[in-house]
Sequence to fold (397 residues):
Amino acid sequence: MAVRPTLPSRFDVSLALGSLLGGLLLWGLGLGIRPHTEPYVLLPGRWPVLLPLVVMAGCELLRRTAPRTALLIGTPAIVLDTVTQGNLVTILMYTDLMYAAVLYGPPASAHRIPRITGLLTVAGAVVPFALWREPEALLIGVVTGLVAFGPASTGLIVRNHREAADAARLRAEQTALLAEMDRAQAVTAERARMARELHDMVANHLSAIAIHSTAALSLQDPRTSQEALVVIRENSVEGLAEMRRLIGILRDSSGDTEPVAAPTLDGLGALVETARTNGLDVHLDAAPGTVPAPVGLAAYRIVQESLTNALKHAGPGRVTVRLARCDGSLAVTVTSPHGDRAGPGAPGSGAGLVGMRERAALLDGTFRVGPEDSPDGRIWAVRATLPVSDTAEGDTA
Fold:
């Protein structure tokens, strides 16, 4: 609700002065409401009319800053006006005070005043008619309704419309704020997703480049350096191709071209061959069958990141990749010898493990990683279980 002003507005001052001048003009022309010969005109003559007129004009200055006070002062003034010849402007100013008291006053007064004036209107019609038994007595209630109940009801209607408009505007602002928050969250989530994609696509190639370039620099054998440079070139080309694919997806917002296909489980063979080229002894045991595209992409990225970590940190020995369906889920297992590699390694940030865990969590799956004991010795195992919905297999990987 708006803060009530402490000083009269320019409009209120203009309204008070204009009403006062208009009332003085009618007074100067001798245009009263009632002739001075009427028996209920207790204060005949022209001068008594000025007192309620001036008081009512002063109350107009308070119509917005102190509406209840203005109405309380204006009510005795209108009663005083009824025992004089009367002035039409005084009555009009009182109707404005009644309207302003409901529109600008406190909520309690805004709902109480129309009820009180409504009762006075009914009483003003019924009581005089019961006493005098004259149809003209009903006009007292009609006049009371026009002067008091009508303006009060109008003020209540306008106030309700304003409050409804304010509530609608507030709801619109809240909706806009929620939409902006949703947009910001969506942007953050998309950035996180693209960061995972970028990391998973490029980390494997850059790790191989770092390891083989270190070997080429540390060894003086020309043949070994030549082989390392070949591996470096292959990983550089493949890494650039993956980077271009991602950038192409980001740039292609027109929808005129077909999007580049995301990796699927059919590409695991090529992924394993690349790992073997980079120096890993990898064995692939994959019989996943048909799985939905999101599950296939997540499994592919988990295997890719696991092979990258094995390239960086695994000891000498065989790396095993297994994918199998079990109880409506796709089980992904990548095991490698535990321990540091004998050759040069590449630094890691830990983002890969976070990315794999997030991919499994997005599909309501489980993810576990850590050292384990096996008949062949200590191993490092990555195990992920990704639920496979039978109803979703129409969109397959």
The radius of gyration is 44 Å.
